[in-house]
Write a structure and sequence with these properties.
Blueprint (H helix, E strand, L loop, with lengths): L5 E6 L12 H7 L4 E2 L8 E2 L5 E6 L1 H10 L4 E5 H15 L6 E18 L7 H11 L2 E6 L2 H14 L9 E5 L9 E6 L4 H6 L5 E6 L3 H5 L2 E16 L7 H20 L2 E9 L3 H10 L8 E4 L3 E9 L7 H10 L3 E7 L13
Parallel strand pairs: 1-4, 1-5, 7-9, 7-10, 8-9
Antiparallel strand pairs: 2-3, 5-11, 6-10, 6-11, 12-14, 12-15, 13-14
EC number: 2.4.2.17
GO biological process, one term: L-histidine biosynthetic process
Subcellular location: Cytoplasm
Length: about 350
């Protein structure tokens, strides 16, 4: 590893699978950062960008690694970054300041509080009010134990029960509780919903998209703790290194260009000179260009180019092409876009 390389935390798991995780491999490839080895579990190398260094790992660990300086940046979900920040704050009294600098618009999930559907409480506040009136120790299960501690402490304060239940511990599942009162959070490695269903805990935290799996287990959501998506996170200290900061800007600009181009195509078409005003009026009415349409003038025809969203229900691509022909356009070509970069100012660091 060279000091002139940008060290990137490359997440193992579904994101490394070319058929899952929003296809991170293709996203990087389209941005100009072709990987080798990543899809096979590593080691990851960037075959056309030797100024990037791939550090394979779990997103659960990336927050700590950025704090220690092992990583300059990481590709990770908001939830796991938040979990590490919460752990360092709660367990070690360390303030970890990380910054999300780009959303990859992938991996969108909800982090929710859950309990059995048979529980009459529909909110976490009602659930905790009932539990604190019946028992001294609340049992919780979560893959993100420190997020659970943070969440429950806030809710206990809201119902006036924090002082009585301020003790807490994070432990392996069903190890003897370290405290007699408060909350004990059992860290799980998946299937949290089964533990709630079978009476292994009072409350749990789960990662979900639609909530259908939870309903299948006879569970219900009593709170939405946060939403999470995959993004680029950095240790702000990188801004003090001009060389690495420049590499970071280059990396982000090209990724942004690829994300910005998704669901967009370029339309190229010819317009007779006498139809120019009609075409430009239509383009203006439907905001089908940015600053101004791109025009290559010719003797009898001019060639226009515009970007069009392929999934815009207000002005579908098929309708745009049809309307263009009605206004006099001809020879309409539809060209896929790999990247669309507005300018450098789009990257704010």
């Amino acid at each position: 590893m060279s000091s002139k390389q940008l060290v990137i935390g490359m997440p193992a798991g579904s994101l490394a699978n070319p058929n899952r995780g929003g296809n991170l491999i293709n996203l990087l490839d389209a941005a100009g950062f072709k990987t080798r080895g990543y899809e096979n579990g590593g080691p990851t190398t960037f075959s056309t960008a030797n100024f990037l260094f791939g550090w394979d790992g779990r997103p659960q660990e990336f927050g700590s690694q950025m704090m220690l300086g092992e990583l300059d940046i990481a590709i990770a979900g908001d939830d796991w970054i938040h979990e590490r920040v919460a752990e360092l704050k709660i367990e070690y009294s360390e303030k970890l300041e990380l910054e999300k600098v780009l959303s990859l618009k992938r991996g969108g999930v909800r982090i929710v509080g859950i309990t059995n559907d048979s529980n009459p409480s529909d909110t976490v506040e009602d659930c905790l009010s009932k539990l604190t009136s019946e028992k001294k120790l609340i049992n919780v299960v979560s893959e993100m134990p420190y997020l659970a501690v943070e969440w429950l402490q806030e809710k206990l304060k809201a119902i006036g029960k924090y002082e009585e239940f301020c003790s807490w511990s994070v432990q392996k599942y069903k190890t003897p509780p370290k405290n007699d009162t408060g909350i004990v959070v059992y860290e799980t490695w998946g299937k949290t919903e089964a533990k709630i269903k079978n009476g292994g805990a009072d409350i749990g935290i789960e990662i979900t998209q639609s909530g259908s799996a939870l309903r299948n287990y006879g569970l219900k959501i009593i709170d939405e703790i946060m939403t999470s998506e995959t993004g680029i996170w950095i240790n702000p200290a990188i801004k003090d290194d001009p060389e690495k900061l420049d590499l970071l800007k280059m990396f982000l600009l090209n990724l942004h260009g690829t994300i910005n181009a998704e669901n967009r195509v370029m339309l190229l078409f010819n317009v007779p000179a006498e139809k120019k005003s009609s075409i430009e009026k239509y383009l203006s009415e439907y905001n089908l260009y940015a600053e101004e349409p791109t025009i290559n003038p010719g003797k009898s025809f001019a060639q226009y180019s515009i970007q069009v969203e392929t999934n815009n229900p207000r002005i579908p691509l098929a309708k745009v092409r049809y309307e263009l022909t009605k206004h006099g356009a001809c020879s309409i070509d539809t060209v896929p876009l790999l990247s669309s970069i507005p300018d450098l100012e789009i990257i704010q660091l």
